[in-house]
Design a protein that fits this description.
By secondary structure, the chain is mostly beta strands. Helices cover about 5% and strands about 60% of the residues. It contains 2 helices and 7 strands; from the N terminus they run βββββββαα. Keywords: Capsid protein, Virion. It comes from Halalkalibacter akibai (strain ATCC 43226 / DSM 21942 / CIP 109018 / JCM 9157 / 1139).
């Protein structure tokens, strides 16, 4: 039986652009008292939004930095809180040239939530310098065209046999799996 496939073009939504960026920033916090030592630092209330601008996605956000410190020669403690804002331009390293429209949905995920690397008393002794890291992965979803083969004879018998196939993995096979077998371009 000779099979001749026809092709159809289907318009669908797909990931048409991807990017990833790691950032470090230093923020200066001004506590109400001159700090003697830093007892702890944490970041809470992270909020962000993303928008595509040209060949980049701009992620704008804010978070609260809380610095627990001692003062008055380490006899008293206090917490200084400050809200900081940021804007990260993330270049799209993968872009589909076959998009049908410039209108895209943008999805941004914080791969690394803002996290304190180090909090130190600044050289002037009155402020606290906080080093923060954060990392984002962005995807642009847009309309594109894909071509699919259409068999005029309908489903082949081979496909019905494939429907009976199970892909169960035994515990022994699962233990032998190498989790590092596949690497994406973003793992670099």
């Amino acid at each position: 039986m000779s099979q001749k496939f026809n092709y159809r073009e289907i318009i669908t939504k797909a990931v048409c652009g991807k990017g990833r960026k790691f950032c470090e920033a230093t923020h200066t916090i001004s506590p109400s008292h001159r700090p003697s030592s830093i007892l702890g630092c944490w970041i809470i209330n992270h909020k962000y939004s993303a928008e595509k601008k040209g060949d980049t996605v701009v992620v704008q956000g804010s978070y609260d930095i809380n610095v627990w410190f001692s003062y008055n020669k380490n006899t008293k403690t206090d917490v200084a809180t400050q809200t900081v804002t940021y804007s990260d331009a993330i270049p799209l390293t993968m872009q589909d040239a076959n998009i049908l429209s410039d209108e895209m949905d943008v999805i941004a995920r914080a791969v690394q939530q803002p996290n304190t690397l180090e909090a130190t008393i600044s050289e002037n002794g009155a402020n606290v310098d906080v080093q923060v890291e954060r990392e984002f992965l962005v995807e642009c979803i847009g309309e594109t065209k894909v071509a699919v083969a259409v068999n005029p004879d309908g489903l082949l018998d081979d496909f019905t046999a494939a429907a009976d196939y199970t892909d169960d993995v035994s515990d022994e096979e699962y233990e032998r799996l190498d989790p590092n077998f596949l690497h994406s371009e973003f793992d670099k």
